[in-house]
Amino acid sequence: MAGSSSGPSLMDSLFQRTLDDLIKSLRSATAISGADSPSLVLSRAVDDIRREIRASDQTTKAIALQKLTYICALHGVDISWAAFHPLELLPSPIFLHKKLGYLAASLSFSPSTSVLPLATHQLRKDLSSPCDPAAALALEFLSSPAASADLARDLCVELSSLLSSTRPRIRVKSTAASLRFFTLYPDSVRVAFKRLVENLECADQRVVSAAVGVFCELSAVDPKSYLPLAPEFYRILVDCRNNWILIKVLKIFSRLAPLEPRLAKRIVDPVCDHLRQSSAKSLVFECIRTVFTSLDGFDDAVKLGVEKLGEFLASEDDPNLRYLGLKGLSMLQPIHLWAVEESREIVVKSLGDPDSNIQREALHLIVRMVSDANLIEISTILLNYALKSDPEFANEILGEILSACCRNFYELVVDFDWYVSLLGDMSRHPHCTKGEDIEHHLVDIGLRVKDARPELVRVARDLLIDPALLGNPFICRILSAAAWVSGEYVELSRNPVELVEALLQPRVSLLPVSARAVYIQSVFKVLIFCLHSYLEQDGAGPLVTRDPVGGSQMSESSDAVMFEISSNCSFDSRIGLEGKDNASNVQRAHTSNDSAETKGFLTYDSLKHILDLIEMSLNPLVECSEVELQERARNILGFISALQKVQGSDFDEEGFRRDPRNCKLITVMADAFLEDLGPVSANAQGRVLVPDGVSLRDDLSDLDGILEGERLEEPSSAPVFFKRSDQLSEAQEEDLPSLTESKSLLAEHRRQHEVYYLPKESSEAEKEGYPRANEAPSSVGHGHIAEGSIQDLIKLTKESLGPRRTKPRPVVVKLDEGESVPTASSLKSVEPRDDPLSGVVREVLLQDGDEPTTSRRISSGNPSRRRSKGTMIPRSTGESAPHSDENLGDLQKGGRHHRSHSHRRQGRDGAQSRPETEDRGEEGKVSHKGSHRSNHPRRHRRKEEAEGPLNVIQQAPPGQDLLL
Amino acid sequence: MIRAVIVMSTEGKSRLARFYDYQPPEKQQELIRRLYGVLSSRPEGVSNFAQVEAIFGPDTRMVYKHYATLYFVFVFDSSENELAMLDLIQVFVETLDKCFKNVCELDIVFNFNKMHSILDEIVFGGQVLETSSDEVLKAVEEITRLEKSASSGGPLPKSVVGRLSR
């Protein structure tokens, strides 16, 4: 470091480069590298600064600091090493130096900057400086991100006094700064809150604006605490003519109104007035937002809002207004979806807008219009649209289709065959990056929707067989799902041999390990299936009836040596399904022929072909370093070699078929794969009863004490690994008995723990009533572009509100309510409510016997407490009376609300002008007078306070609920 | 509240960067870089809004205006009105224009200090404070006067200034 070796010299001061010089040299440093590169210029400058900043001359130091601040702010150089130097300049009598010090500090400090506490004293001095700009500098620093909770604690008293300063600029800035104080140090609310509330009524609009801004921010975190201030905000809403303030007040009301229905009723008229009369688009938009989000129970208001929003949507020349128009539509609650329908033409047209924001909003809105009646058509057209869009937007479209379809367990999907083939089409989209979602849907539908499985298997087969897809990294997860589906539901497959070939094709090596592992496991399942059905082809001995689809009905004979696979059954059901749509008709016809040939194609030769192919492809994996692959490959090869062992080296057709040991081996494996996999409830674990005497909540730390003495003898709890034997075939054979048991064990387990299993009936019901597929989802052009499809969309979305078609729909297996994903609203309700700030605010607003500032609960004679009472109370004592008719009278007397308000303020001012002690006495007296039940003056007072303001704005009976 | 105000050239060089949440310097540079990525991909004649939630986190919006060789960017959250922010950019640029008499990029490059003075009068700790460019100009002129005078701490000037500002 140059600076550390040589101290600053006079030369440095005389020939110091100014910030302008630095900027010039940076601008001329255009070379990418070498002595003239910007980074070198920067580091040289930093070296100079390190020297200069230690100068005793303030000007030299100030210029050095200014350069440093510039470098930090615009070139991202870390200057935390210089944190002390801004502090040196803060007390400077020269304003420029002071300002440079503050600028450097607020741009480069963080709340954890270690020297920050050293600034406290100077900040206090500057806050009380009579020079406006100096005090403003301190306030600016205190509301910058650099301010810390400690600073807020130490300076909140100073802030409080500035809040009622007579210097307008300081009053505005301190009002705005109070936000940061409150959030950093919630207890500062006790000192400064009531002055902030007073500032809502300041004659200076800028002060009001700043105060309203603060409340807008505060109410975003915890609106409930600010309900008692509703009258103040209401007055501003009615009287104020400043758009900036009105926007903020509307934002506050849109947060308060949902909490208090009477408030919503009260504000709906003024909001609509602004909506009608204002010429400022920003205010109009804010009114619309307030109506749509918080006043959606008022149909007239919503209608007016929609009408005004129409002007936004129709503004051809202003994309901003069109964008906000669409945004506004998307704020509408579901019950007002008619408004989206009304504007559908514009919405759909916006899908082709050159602005990607507008496209996106339009897409969201279109997806919202989807119903079960138009899902197929809209999805098909959107998918075609995705083909023409840029990759990013295309994927957004795909994502929207997927989430619309899977919403609430595929609620909108009636025709699962269609949906499954849509998933297949999506996978082939050239830019598709939604592999993860599609993977999940394929597997999930397989598990949940039994009737969709035949089509699922067909789609999976088409994906697997296409070698071109293997190279696309985004699709590998889809392929893995396809492989799983093919293996799991292989009995529905048209041609298992073809499947094995697809699963073992050479390009599979391009897939990641996780997918390849699934591939190999699927090969295993397919192989078992082939062997199994080969054996039973001759009807070699009917024993176990197997339901290939449900798979859950099986005889309990554990000695099952032979069985009959009901391939007829499976293929028959396929024939039943056939002919659903034109597109797949031909294929299906082909399939049905196949079903007759099933026996034919599983010849001994094809079996041998499969076995050879497996051995050839998987042998190299035995040495694979990926354990997942190695293990699964060895499993299959082990099984094959077990077969060969039984058979002897010579594999001959007759022997193979006759040998009962073969049959047993194969049957056992087939049984192992027999049981259907089902979806598992996310909270199944939680429903396991805790056995008596097991306490899960006890701390286990005392276990250490118990075990202390025995530690040495304690047996190692680490798992023991044994070297895997290469003799897999033997291991397999030894395992056979246990495999035979698996089925009965499963059944037994199911019997014992029925609760955690899916009900059998649900997955079997309606097996026969599988609906016919719809007409082919229209051949809406891959050929023709936007115009055509947009026209279609416009036409289609029209139907979405029409009467819903009733159509039998396959059963979707659902688990209990616990499975549903947490919705936004349920998440919202979890939001932390015990935020310290809102606690203090409520306390101060409700005057619940609080003690001000840090000195809690000392004496009740604390002046600031009395002060705060003084202003809060007269409002309620002055005009609230226990009888509501008196209230009414008061209102009538006041006539207009702001009149009654000014009356209130007089009372308040009066209270303030009085000495504080007297004030307290007065207050006590009044509340005594006003109350019949004066035994509990404090409680009564609290009640009145909340009621008083409410009574002013709404003549509804006072509600205690407001306080809660 | 306003989360950040950023002025950057159409080449991606930042000219003014003010963050109202604490962001370490490296992070600031990264945010600006990513923001530039968004801005430079926006064609001409489209809306002034862009999605930045991926960059600045949930509940953030952004509005920008493109003047000659500069982007003026305001990042804000749901407590601000989109169109009002657009107006605020207008106020900011108008003030700069009045302050520098036909502002150009060079004025902004070489007046780091003054840019911050102006911005601080309009946006204070993330809150909109002043929306009249004339008022801002008045305040900034007073600050500039003070900066040029030798001292602000002496008893005499302080009281003079104090009286002036009252």
Radius of gyration of chain B: 17 Å
**Largest interface, Cβ cutoff 8 Å:** A-B, 77 and 66 residues
CATH topology of chain B: Beta-Lactamase
Major sheet details of chain A: none
Mean pLDDT over all positions of chain A: 74
Major β-sheet strand ordering of chain B: 2-1-5-4-3
Number of helices of chain A: 47
Q: Supply the number of structural domains of chain B.
A: 1
Number of strands of chain A: 0
CATH architecture of chain B: 2-Layer Sandwich
Question: Globular, elongated, flat, extended or rod-shaped: what is the shape of chain A?
Answer: extended
Strand content of chain B: 15-25%
Low-confidence stretches of chain A: 1-5, 540-600, 711-739, 761-786, 800-806, 821-832, 848-964
Number of helices of chain B: 7
Q: Structural class of the secondary elements of chain B?
A: alpha+beta
Radius of gyration of chain A, rounded?
Answer: 39 Å
Tell me the series of helices and strands of chain B, N- to C-terminal: EEHEHEEHHHEEHH
Q: Give a short account of the largest sheet of chain B.
A: 5 strands, antiparallel
How would you classify the helix and strand content of chain A by structural class?
Answer: mainly alpha
Q: Per the principal axes of the C-alpha atoms, what is the gross shape of chain B?
A: globular
Family (chain A): Belongs to the adaptor complexes large subunit family.
Biased composition (Basic and acidic residues) (chain A): 761-770, 915-926
InterPro entries (chain A): AP3_complex_dsu, ARM-like, ARM-type_fold, Clathrin/coatomer_adapt-like_N
Domain Clathrin/coatomer adaptor adaptin-like N-terminal (chain A): 49-521
